[in-house]
Design brief:
CATH topology of the largest domain: Glutathione S-transferase Yfyf (Class Pi), Chain A, domain 2
Number of helices: 11
CATH class of the largest domain: Mainly Alpha
Catalytic activity: RX + glutathione = an S-substituted glutathione + a halide anion + H(+); L-dehydroascorbate + 2 glutathione = glutathione disulfide + L-ascorbate; methylarsonate + 2 glutathione + H(+) = methylarsonous acid + glutathione disulfide + H2O
Distance between the termini: 9 Å
Helix content: 40-55%
Strand content: 5-15%
Order of helices and strands: EHEHEEHHHHHHHHH
Pfam family, one: GST_N_3
Radius of gyration: 18 Å
Family: Belongs to the GST superfamily. Omega family.
InterPro entries: Glutathione-S-Trfase_C-like, Glutathione-S-Trfase_C_sf, Glutathione_S-Trfase, Glutathione_S-Trfase_N, GST_C, GST_omega, GST_Omega/HSP26, Thioredoxin-like_sf
Strand order of the largest sheet: 2-1-3-4
Shape: globular
Function: Exhibits glutathione-dependent thiol transferase activity. Has high dehydroascorbate reductase activity and may contribute to the recycling of ascorbic acid. Participates in the biotransformation of inorganic arsenic and reduces monomethylarsonic acid (MMA).
Structural class: alpha+beta
Length: about 250
């Protein structure tokens, strides 16, 4: 199947009985969460990439919100990143990602709810053309990274939030952490860079994450994210960037 994005007017690619399908956008951090779980647990699947500015009618029929990720297998459809990750962990239950301990599982939920405090200033800074506003939002990001630094350090069984191996939360956080280094490049301002020496535990976590085959398989480097976001900010995102002709 093509990696090129399916757009409005395209024909629906027929499904196959019993084959798990992910509806995806290659640069979407929310869809990357689902891809990370699929890759980590080595779940067989196929991928259909969606042009999010010109969505196919058949995709909107599957998910009227028009958002990725969406999972489909036979007559089952599961949208939304956290729902897809949890569903995959429940259905493909080998090598569990969700903590067995109820207290730890509850705190992972707290950590996930806090991600919005990173996402909001980050994308605010990405979209802003005001240098002082960008620097202010960068300081917010650094403050909230300290929260994760302290929580991860307190667990004392790292390098992951899941301990010696990643948990679901590691994969929920990673796509946004992966994109943070693009901000100083996008704005040409080194002041915005992550101060690794102030978050040594998170820095070690990031190093361990980057070595996971699932992360290697789903990630782009900072310069690639910058290239894509420049197109996105101009109103002409190239959903097929870096793909060779089929």
């Amino acid at each position: 199947m093509t990696q090129k994005s399916f757009a409005q007017g395209s024909a629906f690619p027929p499904t196959k009985p019993g084959v798990l399908r992910l509806y995806n956008m290659r640069f979407c951090p929310f869809a990357q969460r689902t891809r990370l779980v699929l890759e980590y647990k080595k779940i067989p699947h196929e991928v259909v990439n969606i042009h999010l500015k010109s969505k196919p009618e058949w995709f909107l029929a599957l998910n009227p919100l028009g958002q990725v990720p969406v999972l489909q297998i036979d007559d089952k459809i599961v949208p939304e990143s956290t729902a897809t990750c949890d569903w995959l962990d429940d259905v493909y239950s080998e090598n569990r990602l969700q903590p067995a301990d109820p207290y730890r599982r509850a705190w992972d939920r707290v950590l996930h709810e806090y991600i919005g405090k990173l996402i909001t200033p980050f994308y605010g800074a990405v979209r802003s053309s005001d240098a002082s506003e960008v620097e202010s939002k960068s300081e917010e990001i650094k403050k909230h990274l300290q929260f994760y630094e302290e929580k991860l350090k307190a667990r004392e069984d790292g390098p992951f939030f899941g301990g010696s191996k990643p948990s679901t939360f590691d994969f929920l956080l990673w796509p946004f952490y992966e994109r943070l280094p693009m901000l100083p490049l996008l704005k040409d301002n080194p002041v915005l860079d992550i101060e690794a020496d102030k978050i040594p535990t998170l820095t070690a976590w990031a190093k361990a994450m980057r070595e996971l085959p699932a992360v290697i398989a789903t990630s782009f480097d900072a310069s690639s994210h910058v290239a894509w976001y420049k197109g996105h900010l101009s109103g002409a995102p190239d959903y097929d960037m870096f793909l060779k002709e089929d």
